[in-house]
Amino acid sequence: MEKGGKGYSSLNKGGKDDSPAKSAKGRRVQFAEDSFDPISGSSPMSGGKAASTQFKGGKGEKVANGGKSTGSKSSKSSEFGIEQELPKNVKCVMNCEAADILQGIQDRMTMLSKDPAIKIPVSFDKGLQYAKSNSHYTKSESVRSILEPLADLGVSEAELCVIGNVCPQTSEEVFALIPSLKVRRSTIEGLVREILRELGKLKKPM
Amino acid sequence: MFLKVQLPWNVILSPESLEASDLKLQESIIIRLLDDFAAKKATKDLGYYIAVTTLKRIGEGKVRQHTGDVLFPVVFSALTFKICKGEILEGVVHKVMKHGVFLRCGPVESLYLTNLKMPDYRYVPGENPYFLNDKMSKIGKDVVVRFVVIGTKWMEADREFQALVSLEGDYLGPVSSPAEI
């Protein structure tokens, strides 16, 4: 992202500042309102309002030095969930599930790769490595069945997958990271705690 | 996140690659399908093409006039990877600059985290620069960081995605010391 790069305008302020800013802080990173539109086509960032997913409160830290955020608002996109970004006919797959699928393919590929006519997608290795590194549970098939009761209470498949991928420690973490679940908090919080207890039994040792 | 999708494609075989036996013909169709799939790399709707998982069916071949090629309608399932706005992901820092860091996450190589979206972190210059906050949490090369995606961009010419990410929010930030992702 470079100063004066094509198609970029201010992210945070005004939205109309096209000239590279030479503030005391140095270069400003600028992004166009329309060039970083979400693929779903929802409205671009309005002037002065960053389209960031931000969280209120400051409790808890999954990471060693994660800080509290100052009070901030959720973006419109997070209110409607990640589904806005996805085509209709897709199924969301958790990292642990993808790791199993891709590892199975790789095991068969040792035979297939001897045939030079068989082409492997360039993203396969990176996809497999990512899935395995970010797979936190020992039994992927059990993870989905443990999370499934949340679907009956209106939680979307994409939201279930984010929970499965993030491997949260507490219900606070779940609602902080997935703001679209907050509207159902009173209904699902007890179930979320129970589910996290069950998932905790499946976690891979560090 | 990873997506599983069922796709109807047309696989075209030239007359030279048509085989007499059904088994050989099926093999040719599958090889061609894998070839076309690998060449696709990524699309705006589905993200990065990772792997063909299952072949559902191969339809009846139709001869194309003038060329003699045969078109086979094929339905198959595939795994793809797409980054979505609002999603929580973990990536590895691969480049540190004064005003932000670049991360990679799976097949996505260009995720940018500006210092404006790293609350309380300040740049520490040097041969191996990094960002540091008051709690001595460090964001430098090879550090794994959990972030939220705040914007994505599809680059048609390169067939790849770029993304803007942020650490503004609870439970976001460095996850561990340098690690492979």
From TrEMBL, chain A:
Residue intervals of the RNA polymerase Rpb4/RPC9 core domain: 85-206
Biased composition (Polar residues): 40-55
Subcellular locations according to the entry: Nucleus
Keyword Glycoprotein among UniProt keywords: no
Keyword set includes Ribonucleoprotein: no
GO biological process, one term: DNA-templated transcription initiation
Biased composition (Low complexity): 66-78
GO cellular component: nucleus; RNA polymerase complex
Region (Disordered): 1-80
Entry keyword set: Nucleus
A Pfam family assignment: RNA_pol_Rpb4
Family: Belongs to the eukaryotic RPB4 RNA polymerase subunit family.
UniProt protein name: RNA polymerase Rpb4/RPC9 core domain-containing protein
UniProtKB/TrEMBL annotation, chain B:
Single Gene Ontology MF annotation: single-stranded DNA binding
GO biological process: DNA-templated transcription initiation
Gene Ontology cellular component annotations, sorted alphabetically: nuclear DNA-directed RNA polymerase complex
Record-linked CDD domains: RNAP_II_Rpb7_N (cd04329)
Keyword set, alphabetical order: DNA-directed RNA polymerase, Nucleus, Transcription
Domain RNA polymerase Rpb7-like N-terminal residues, every copy: 10-68
InterPro entries: NA-bd_OB-fold, RNA_pol_Rpb7-like_N_sf, Rpb7-like, Rpb7-like_N
Localization terms from the record: Nucleus
Top-level taxon of the source organism: Eukaryota
Short name of one Pfam family: SHS2_Rpb7-N
Role description: DNA-dependent RNA polymerase which catalyzes the transcription of DNA into RNA using the four ribonucleoside triphosphates as substrates.
Family: Belongs to the eukaryotic RPB7/RPC8 RNA polymerase subunit family.
Name the record gives this protein: DNA-directed RNA polymerase subunit
